[in-house]
Write a structure and sequence with these properties.
4 helices; elongated; mainly alpha
């Protein structure tokens, strides 16, 4: 049975809306302008990569997908999920707590996003 990536994407999407709304309404008067920008960056990348995950889920729904493409896309979906958690998660926490060391792990999430996009591209190779 294939992992339910559409469900995961839907959960990430709901979280992106909820967290983004929280940031826009509850944190505007609390966070410094710099930290608002950090929070907005986290939210944008959270949304962008939720859409990528939804696209990957759509590609994986093709029952006749070749085995090598299936594996690349499944691995890519894991990288996207990890990237959302690490990249956006660390930035959300940085914005709220202003603990600067959290910014040190953000590039790990960014690298995960890059790997995910490259794997999607390789899945189109013949």
């Amino acid at each position: 049975m294939r992992f339910r990536w559409t469900l995961v994407a839907a959960i990430f999407g709901a979280l992106a809306v909820g967290i983004g709304a929280f940031g826009a309404h509850a944190l505007r008067g609390i966070l410094s302008p710099d930290m608002v920008k950090v929070f907005e960056t986290a939210s944008k990348y959270h949304f962008y990569h939720t859409f990528l995950l939804l696209y990957i889920a759509h590609l994986l729904s093709n029952e006749s997908i070749e085995e090598n493409k299936l594996k690349l896309l499944q691995i890519s979906a894991w990288y996207v999920s990890f990237g959302i958690l690490i990249f956006s998660g660390s930035l959300y926490l940085l914005a709220i707590t202003e603990i600067r060391i959290l910014g040190a792990i953000t590039p790990i999430g960014g690298l995960s996003f890059i790997v995910a996009w490259i794997l999607v591209a390789f899945s189109y190779r013949k």
